[in-house]
Each structure stands twice: as C-alpha cells, then as structure tokens.
C-alpha cells in the first residue's frame, strides 16, 4: 500500500518544518509504516486532493485520506491495532489531549513569535505574501513587531518547559519507559523551532534537552534527517 504524507515546506523542499507534520512522521515510524513525503507550500494546501483540507499534515493511506495530526494518530491506532500502540489505552489518549493543549497554548505561541521572521524568510514569494497577511491578522501587528516581542520569549522559554522538566526526573519519556504520541506532540513543537530558527531554546545537560536528543535518535535518527537551522 502506498502512503503519502503531505508536509509543509519552504523554498527548500527537503526541510519539512511543521510541528504537526513531525508528530505524524514519528507516529508512522512508531507503527513501523513506510511513507513518502510530498512537500507543499502554504498556498498549495487548498489544492491538495481536490481541496479536501485546508491544513497539513494530510495522510493518504491507500484510498483513505486523513488530516489533522491527532486525527491521523487516532486513525493509525485503529487501523493498525496490531502494531505498537501510540497511546497505551484510553488514559493515554486523554493524556495526549492534555499535552496537546499545553503545547499549543504555551509552546507554539512563543515559538511562533521567536521564529516568525525566520519562517517568513524561508518561504517562496507567493507563500511569503500569504504568511505575512495571515500572521499579521492573527497577531494584530506586523511580523517585525511580533519578532521584536519574541525576544522576550527567548529569555523565558525555558520556564515554560518546567512541567516537562519535572516529569522527566522520574521517567525517560512522557509515555514512561518508551515514547508515545504525547512525546511526539512536544517533540514536534521543539523540532519546529530547531529547523526554522537559529535560536537555541534548549540547554545542554538539561533533562528536557536530553529527552529531545533521545527523540531525535528514534527510528534510526528520523528527527535528525533534517539538520538544525
């Protein structure tokens, strides 16, 4: 069966950067499922698969199309129930929902402000126009003003990781002895920052940095297949 993962990229089509795509890449690897990556720019997304989605990742698995990283994880868990679990049961699904909320409400906004100009500069011109218009509308100010505000986020970012730092004192992964989808959620956010921005948000020797390095090593170093900015 042919699997295709549509992944958001900039000018360099070998550097998918979406945090949500990275969740799905590790989810597929976790299940031991092969896939091809189809790179797309922001303005190409509405044209995919006859306009089935406005977001990526979008996974084509045979004749099945699934968008949204969490929905894809749920689909993979059900469709490939005989393969390693992404959640470890209903409690793991509930935990992943909480982790996703924390990541998207706490980590994503800060990374978005820190890296906003780096993301813009990595895009094709047509996508730069879309990105500027959509993000300036979202933030209510220019990209440059948002980036200026992001300087403060660099200084305070480590504090946002304190809940994760505390938990990792007791276990090597959010999922316990091994990774689950909850790990891939947070990894996706930090991988996004690693790929698009030269700012280093993790400190060597920190338990969070050690966890991130373990995640980069998973599945024959899948996370390292794209180098840091």
UniProtKB/TrEMBL annotation:
InterPro entries: Glutathione-S-Trfase_C_sf, Glutathione_S-Trfase_N, GST_UstS-like_C, Thioredoxin-like_sf. This is Beta-etherase LigE. Coiled coil: none annotated. It comes from Sinorhizobium americanum. Gene3D superfamilies: 1.20.1050.10, Glutaredoxin. It holds the Pfam family GST_N_3.
């Amino acid at each position: 069966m042919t699997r295709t993962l549509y992944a958001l990229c900039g000018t360099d089509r070998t550097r998918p950067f979406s945090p949500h795509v990275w969740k799905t890449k590790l989810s597929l690897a976790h299940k031991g499922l092969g896939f091809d990556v189809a790179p797309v720019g922001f303005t190409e997304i509405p044209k995919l698969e006859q306009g089935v989605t406005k977001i990526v990742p979008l996974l084509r698995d045979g004749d099945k199309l699934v968008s949204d990283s969490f929905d894809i994880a749920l689909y993979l868990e059900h469709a490939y129930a005989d393969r390693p679990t992404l959640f470890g049961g209903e409690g793991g699904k509930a935990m992943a929902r909480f982790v996703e909320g924390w990541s998207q409400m706490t980590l994503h906004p800060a990374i978005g402000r820190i890296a906003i100009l780096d993301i813009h500069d990595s895009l094709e011109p047509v996508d730069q126009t879309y990105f500027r218009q959509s993000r300036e509308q979202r933030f209510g100010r220019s990209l440059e003003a948002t980036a200026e505000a992001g300087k403060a986020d660099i200084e305070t970012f480590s504090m946002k990781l304190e809940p994760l730092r505390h938990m990792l004192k007791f276990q090597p992964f959010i999922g316990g002895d091994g990774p689950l989808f909850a790990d891939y959620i947070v990894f996706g956010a930090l991988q996004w920052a690693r790929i698009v921005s030269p700012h280093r948000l993790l400190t060597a020797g920190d338990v969070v940095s050690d966890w991130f390095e373990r995640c980069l090593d998973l599945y024959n170093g899948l996370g390292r297949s794209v180098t840091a900015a």
